[in-house]
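Forum: Protein Structure Q&A
Topic: Joint prediction for protein chains with partners

I've read a bunch of threads here and the consensus seems to be that you should model interacting components together rather than docking separate models afterwards. I'd like to see that in practice. Below is the full input, 1266 residues plus whatever partners are listed. Could one of the regulars post the assembled result?
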Amino acid sequence: MSKVRVLILTGLGLNCEAETDAAFRMVGASPEQVHLLDLLEGRAERRLSDYRILAFIGGFAFGDHLGAGFVFANKIRWRLYDQLLSFIENGGLALGVCNGFQTMVRLGMLPGFDGDYRTPRATLAPNDRLGYRDAWVKLAVDPNSPCVWTRGLTTIDLPARHGEGKFLTETPEVLDRLESGSQVAVRYVGDNGKPTQDWPDNPNGSPDAVAGICDPTGRLFGLMPHPDAYLYPYQHPQWHRDKHRDGVVLPTEGAGLAIFRNGVEAAAG
Amino acid sequence: MVTRLEIAGRTDLPDPRGLHAGGRIRNFLGIPVRAVRTRDVYRIEADLQAGEAEKILNEVTDPVLHRGGLGRVESDRFDFAVSVAFKPGVTDPVGKSAMVAVQDTLGRALTLTGGEEPAVYSSTLYLLTGVTREQAETIGTSLLANPVIQTITIRSWDEWSSSAPDMTVPRVPAQHRPEVQRYDLSGSDAELQEISRKGLLSLSIEEMHAIRNHFLAAGNDPARTGLGLDHRPTDVELECLAQTWSEHCKHKIFNATVTYHEAGKEPETIRSLFKTCIMGATKAIGAPWLVSVFHDNAGVVTFDERIHLVYKVETHNSPSALDPYGGAITGIVGVNRDPFGTGLGAHLLANVWGYCFGSPFHEGDLPKGLLHPRRVRDGVHQGVIDGGNQSGIPYGRGWEVFDHRYLGKPLVFCGTVGALPVTIAGGPGEKKAALPGDRIVMTGGRIGADGIHGATFSSAALDESAPVQAVQIGDPITQKRMFDFLLVARERGLYNAITDNGAGGLSSSVGEMAEQPGGARLDLSQAPLKYAGLATWEILVSEAQERMTLAVSPEKIDEFLELAREMEVETNDIGEFTDSGMFHVTWGDETVACLSMEFMHEGDPDLNLTARWAPPLYAEPEPFSGTDLTEDLIAMLARLNICSGEKKARHYDHEVKGLTVVKPWIGVEQDVPAEATVFLARHGSSRGFVLAESVNPFLSDIDTYAMTVAVVDEAVRKLVCAGARTDRIAALDNFCWPDPVQSDHTPDGEYKMAQLVRSCRALYDTTLAYGTPLISGKDSMKNDSTMGGVKISVPPTLLLSAIGQIDDVRNAVTADFKQEGDRVYLLGTTRDECGGSEYFRYLGEKDGIAGNPGEPAPYVGNRPPVIDPERTLPLYRAVEKVMAAGLVRSASTPARGGLILALARSAMAGMLGAEIDLDVDLPADRLLFSESGGRFVITVAEKNGAAFEAAMAGQPCSRIGTVTAGSRLVVRHGGGTVADASLTDMKAAFKETLNHV
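Posted by a regular:
Agreed with the consensus. Here's the joint model:
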């Protein structure tokens, strides 16, 4: 079987291309990094339709000036939207991490109600406690979610690294609908495994502890925490502790990889 | 025409930026402001067609969060509106991004009638309720804005409601380029000194003489007269020499001939501390794994078959004193360009930072012109946070040291580790050479008046006349885009050499690159400017950020420029490297400077300095007479120089790139600083590098020799403690000294120079003994400030940064206690060496001894740690072996605060207690708090105890206790309990001090 082709959009202040590339490679896909400007100007000799998965990576596109992901999303909206919509229509998958999630929400790719992938209905607002913060969080996966990227997962620890991660919706009904459709694929939870509003377990104050959402098909998924920064088991903050503790079973791979593997398997199948 | 967009938050949503500002206003300024709301304002200076303004507004306004308006958005009543905008010419990255968004939205390039360049200018509006005008002014100038770079406009509610929206834009007024001036240097010494002083040239009278003599001799040379020049140097030439010869660029003090006097000894002559001590030690070590040291922008060492490691640490002190945010962000993005400009270009892996500040709780008077240290601290942190995060580089190490002598000048250390491919475009990655005929290419950003005289200014004491334009503001996004472009160009082999534009701007970058081919011809009329009106010399020496200079062969120039165009990175061909022996600068056809390369680089007169050492004598505290040190332990944990800095540090990304293994904060709750951090260097290999550092200016007060031995030892020991190999440790030295040149302003210059000599000698002795070569370094030698007539000098400060290697990151060891029942060992010897210790300063405060502003805080004491590498190195090698054998469960290094602080950190990190019984013949307080070097606290599983002890045979190793499941750290000595503290109390004290600032 040929490898699943993944397009990683890069440039303009994005910065997680190396680890995203490594992640997709580790689960057997074939990622390619393409600068957004090359794609917009048609220099890349590639089109979105050449790929099964589109990765919106983390970083600070245009410094997050005028709002996280805004200027980058704006470029896509005015110059690449038709290609993007037909990519989605044709069954393509997309993963957005952090700045990439913000971009997908800005574009209206998420939540994508009723096949509408161009109307923004939510935003990632500044954290309640102002400022960027880097700390690991615990996420619970909604077992009923249609999200193909989180299939089979229950909980996952990942680093959250952002200043604008508070998921706010246009109206309360939008959040209700996301919940009832199990589109809230991942939530911040406390030590007891329950969704929490308490800082720092919920690092930004997102209502309903939303950490990431998918579209109704489950193929498009975005989240604030970084699966791309937990590729090796020993990256977990407790690994160098646990390896010395009697009776602790160490993981064999970084848990973030499971998300990439799920997406690649869904794209292949 | 100006279009004004105002973006306000929805009134039913909280405004985190306003709430944050409100908290700071109340906490820091003590002004009981009731409410703060904020707005973003964009002024678009461009010709817009009908409907376009609305289209932009609609796009920029986030419907979930915002209410946007053209002109102005209505507001509920407030008392005062404070508008904060950039001054003309100051970098406005937000405005730049807004320009992109506007053009994308409109699908066209903006234009402006009259031919001026269109632009978008950003500003912020703070609407304050519950303040007077006077308070609003205080808030504006001391918290919201920095008057050095920003304009503040204050309007009351009535003024605001009755006036039209402010449509002014901070455009730099168009001006003509001033004529090139010529300097007549035939006058008296007083006149020469006046020329240097007025021009901010920082040239000494000896240097002015050398310049005068050179031009008198060269003035009749037809080669010079034929170009329209004469015996009078042009302003371009004089400025260029001032940059090239500045202390910052030339390291005159480190290269001086020094006569060193010490009582009872014959005077000694040292020719260049740099060559004899620093390069000397590295040469003597002769490590075969060094790839490139001292001559490039950063040091390079072997790592694996694919990449070398590159490391550089810099300081950015003077700019950070004037504009903490701008100075610091420039510091971090500036040092990023050093590894990037090393060899043919390294990509960047990790940043480090460290700061020396006055206490953020400083309450006394501040000399006029100085910012409060809390403000300096906030701004510096935010600058490096934004610079590092937005560049996508994780931080590996971060630290702060506080002392009242940093009130005058904060020290801001920033460093970057990079990875240089062993092979680039078919050749060795570390080799580069500009060839005669190569094009001189400048890429990145445009040149403005920002950062003019940075190099010469940093070579002078800070006083009220410091130039506004010496401040630059780095723009990490512009730089990231330039790096993205250059990495593609690197892989395609499109250039022959690369270096960064830092201090001295083009005069330094082109001047240095031209040494290899033997000359350059630079046409400044081809350099892109942010605005017209810069003098020719300003273009040459501007330190405007985000620029690299490259040598591109004529065959590849078209491809190079085309790639730059595609990736939208401003790039210009500005001249040619030659072998003429001359640094020839023109404006079109007009020659504005023609300097012989030899005179530029070798013409500065040698400096002769005298050093005179006399050991100081300080008061000692009374001997310890109590029985219980628990309260002292808690108090020590809360001290500024020991307590947790996690609050600020968490704002820095430490995991981007997905290579971080042992993170800066460790333990069950990840709230205790790691002894050293461990990173992978690339995906797909479990080999890693290890970072640690040490800085201990307090020991300098007793003897800089002891200080230097201690910092080398501590940095090396931290690496070993994390599992690094002892045979692959490289070190970087960053000296930040008070001016050591004897003069009327510096009557104790000879003593300070002796401190420098002793430090350098210790560096030689210790790095040689440990086999840890110095691979790069920097000195900043004028860290004095004279503000409001008060002189404050920093204590001699040496940052020793160490980078080690670990064959498999899975074998790294962290400091947290792992499991109850584990044995606790103390390795090394504890002596009564509390001189310069945190404990003595604590006792001084406890005894209420008042210190003097310019002097060390009491007690200093007289017995610093003495370390003998003959004994410690075999111990470190033994530790390396037991770690590789997997016998060690945790390891920490007693350092500041002593043994008890190391135990406390391991206990807090592991959330486990310990029962410790110390059998050493020392007073209890000295035993617990002495800062003797060469020690480790190591825990070992019970089952491995015997193997561990066997491996440690012959080493100073004693079992001192057991890890317990309890929640207390209990220490016994001489039959009694001398400390018994709960984890809860320890953590509370450790975390509280800096938790609210």
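The first helix of chain B runs from residue 16 to 29.
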